[in-house]
Amino acid sequence: MSKFDKIVYQIYPKSFQDSNHDGWGDIRGVISRLDYLQDLGINYIWFNPMTVSPQKDNGYDVKDYRSFDPRYGTMEDFEELAKEAKKRGIDIMFDMVFNHTSTEHEWFQRALAGEEKYKNYYIWKKGKGPGVPPNNWQSKFAGSAWEYVEQFDEWYLHLFDVSQADLDWTNPEVRRECADIVNFWRSKGVHGFRFDVINLISKASFEDDPFNFDGRQFYTDGPREHEYLRELNRASFGQDEDHLTVGEMSSTTIDNCIQYSGADCEELDMVFSFHHLKVDYHNKMKWELQEPDFMELKSLLTEWQVAMQENNAWNALFWNCHDQPRSVSRFGNDGKYRRESAKMLGAALHMLRGTPYVYQGEEIGMPNAYFTDISEYVDVESTNIYDILLKEGKPKEEVLHILQERSRDNARTPMQWDDSPNGGFSDVTPWLKSASSYPSVNVKADRQDADSIFAFYQNLIRLRKTMKVVQEGWFSPLLEENRQVFAYRRDLEAEHLICVNNFYEAETEITLPLEGYEILSGNYPDAVVKNTIRLRPYETLILYKKD
Ligand code: GLC
């Protein structure tokens, strides 16, 4: 299967569509919305984990890798979903969480019960002294990355929540178990896999971090990482011609990603990297706000495009996911220019080289939730950081403002289908409150407009599926010094495509040699092609020429 014509739609199942009146999204809810997805044109759905989980981290704390949490539905429901999706030309990608399991997983429970075999599935170390953890590493969700277990007088590692114990990948039995899980889902007809924080599975050493105290340099892109991925590939998905795999790579490097996704490396098909989504982190700190650094954004996107292309490696392209605030609020303008900027961001991303991912609600320009009280938040990361920042002495209003901009719950509020209560997601109170924007920002309202964001995305998706230059064209940056326009070209033999994007409200003039180009798409209906174009607020243009 070629990865070139794939467009992946990410469903956060808990928030997509409730069908059984319990305020949780579920598989039957997704089935009822497949026609919508077919209409959008996507050909893959990535589902966040739906397997049994105590939900401390919304499913990324897996208790049982092989069965669905009943709140999502049953294996029969899933089989029907897969069949109905296939009928509509849509394949399925599942999320494999292999860096850690829930501490409620049978393996961890048997470890606690004293079974040596299972104890060796996890990472245990002696403390430095009574009550002192083995090293100074910090959990990604705040606090020490180690938890003491009295009966062993040892600590287990948890890079995330205390209920997410890290697996020990040096143990071949752990690696075999993970391959078996992938094979289980392959036997159910799943051939797409997203591997959660997969570049953290090989820990280099367990020494104190002398620099920034979180320890990431010792567990990111570790020494056996590529070996483990090749082994997993050979033992599982690599046996399928039609697999589609993506690794979530936390704080990674281009060099490693070239190897993770290089055409001949036999690891993964593509990678998610996050550097472009940190350009609004002040001092690289997630909880310190700053305006996006546009020049840094441009240069990062360009650098990754160029390096990956030159080495025949492949990017996953995304602005949004369940861990990121909404792009239209972050890089666009979710007030007066919500439509224009949502379309511009879509075009700027979809014409790049790589595989685009659309996160639910992005195709109608859903903005951040803008919750005003901490009680409205559910995400463990948000509630932890709220307490920490208050303790550090930050005023409550400021902390709430930070969460409005940065919380993962901004992405996780229920999908906004129409203006009925809870946006048509559920007829009972949802597990996470709907964003207050739903009466005006919803699928029904958007699609009533001939010039909808949805229709614009449909067109972007159609361009990728039908045009070789979008799939395989060579990327080169344009107007690199321009401080408000991100522009680039794609070239494939006689075909040429140019995409220009004004990232600001201010108008600006650009000059490019555009003789012979025609407009494939844009967000202002009356645009005309000239060598000098005055770009209006958030204007985007996709231009095309055939020699
Ligand atoms: C990934 C997931 C995120 C989760 C974390 C721990 O980053 O995308 O939602 O909290 O891994 O599994």
Give me a quick take on this structure.
This protein is α/β, with parallel strands linked by helices. Helices cover 29% and strands 18% of the residues.
Any overview of this molecule?
29% of the residues lie in helices and 18% in strands. By secondary structure, the chain is α/β, with parallel strands linked by helices. It has 3 domains: 8-99 and 171-456, TIM Barrel (Alpha-Beta Barrel); 106-166, Oligo-1,6-glucosidase, Domain 2 (Oligo-1,6-glucosidase, domain 2, Alpha-Beta Complex); 472-546, Immunoglobulin-like (Sandwich), CATH 2.60.40.1180. An 8-stranded parallel beta sheet has the order 13-12-11-5-2-1-15-14. A hairpin with a 4-residue loop joins strand 8 and strand 9 (154-157). Helix 6 (172-187) packs parallel to helix 8 (225-235) and helix 13 (380-391) packs antiparallel against helix 14 (396-406). The longest helix has 17 residues, at 294-310. The protein binds alpha-D-glucopyranose. Alpha-D-glucopyranose is lined by residues 57, 60, 97, 160, 196-197, 248, 322-323.
